[in-house]
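Next up, sample data.

:::
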Amino acid sequence: MIRTPLRPLARILTARAKGENPEAIERENLRLRHEVMRDRARTMAEGRLVFLALAFFMVFGVIGARMGLMAATVPEEPKSASPGAEILAQRADITDRNGRILATNMLTHALYVQTNDLVDPPRVARELARVFPELKEEDLLRRFTDGRSFLWVRKVLSPEQMQQVHEIGDPGLLFGPREMRLYPNGRLAAHVLGGSSFGAEGVSSAEVIGTAGIEKQMDARLRDPGQAGRPLSLSLDLTVQATVEEILGAGMTMMNAKGAAAVLMDVHTGEILALSSLPDFDPNNRPNGPVSGDPSDSPLFNRAVQGVYELGSTFKIFAASQALELGLVTVDTIIDAKTPLISGRFHIKEFRNHNYGMIPLWDVIAKSSNVGTARVALLIGGLRQQAFLKSMGFFEPTSVEIVEAAGAKPLVQKKWGDITTITTSYGHGLAASPMHLAAAYATIANGGVKVAPTLIHSDRHESGPRVLSEKVAKQAVWMLRKVVTEGTASYAEVPGYDVAGKTGTADKPRRDGKGYYKDKVVNTFASIFPADNPKYVLIVTLDEPVDTSGPEPRRTAGYTTVPIAAEIIRRTAPLLGLKPAVEPPAQDRITAVVSTRSGVAATGGN
């Protein structure tokens, strides 16, 4: 840097030559230098002030924006869950076919503890044990003081419990908001809905997952965020379902049965209007599954879908229908129903050793003749019988949208000799579920087109393959109607509604595999209504029923399941929109119309 001297020599020499004082030059230069230094210092100070002002403005602007954001958001409890994928808590509702809620979500809270923030752990443990009697004070205190920093106390709280915990007033007690699954109708349709529980959990939300029934089968659909606002519409009719469960429960008690099941299905679409299994449970408080014993003894066991039974004489219509389809017989073909029928070392007899003699095919079905059905089955042959039953769906699990259905595969004999052909024709030797039977009877009722049972309500349904000709299907329904009017199901007559159906009484196999019980049966009544224009199929099954209203105990389906099914039809047919047929007046009834001055008067007479 070039430094300018305060006393420049040239100016001093000039000043002396003119007689001026050289000291004035030095004072002038010093003054000018100080002015430059002062201006430079002022500029630097002003720059620092501007910078500080901008810095303060930015800092306080950020703080103000953050305070405004915090004021606009909902307060949350501190999160102590480890970082990971976001928990999807929202789950779509489930409704019946008319939009009535079967399953929905409810906001609740969980209770957890940050032990490091507890002020008085012994007092907190004591107060929590008072609020939640199932918790022990000693266990809580041990968990509060064993070194862990976080622990769950309760996954779901009622509003009253939440208020009581609030009143404890310890800062270590915290609440986590979450949604829980609510079934507002309690036990109604419990086996269809199944139940749900919590999956992944955090302090601010919890994942709800299906554990059984349609909740588990359709879990991906119900948890799909893109469909969260669109309920899953089931084919069930809530009013019809409630009616079926009420009558089935009363009938099960009256008939002293161990369990019961009912399936009501639309024969054209396969949609299930009602599905009931008893005993049942409340999906809001789903019990734990059995760890020993017979699984069918548990209320969680779905007898309509999981129950695989020998369904007895309800199978006889399949042998008759196939023989008609093959052209081997007509409905009036005379069948030898004399007893016994001998096949190898086996003697085929009738119930109570009846001997029906020579009777037409339709009467074989009406009287439920084992021997007559066996002879028809032998005409068909084992290979053709297997193929037909496969086409009716009796060799694979049903496709109904309940997770338990996949494991309910029919039990089929590995060796299919003549005796298997005979016994299968009248419902022994092949075990299937009531749902299988409902789908097969629907195939007959709708004119011979196979239907797939479904619990999903839809306006579009795909038609299955044709299994029977329409003519044979109508003949089968006509024979089933004869079972009610002239055969073993006389108690199935419902005024105003023509019912067709078939009874089935099957001896119950022993658990040890050594034959059958002598005093335990599984009874089934498979019905179609109205018979003149079939719209619905109803299957009712009772496990170990016995009618004790008479002088002797009666265990056949005609006395146990048939009256229950008749009452269900009588109560549900109007709910389904079916108008009762009005009996026409007697043909010899004469009505006379005479003219009077005041109008027209009518008189009647015979």
The longest helix spans residues 22-72. The radius of gyration is 42 Å.
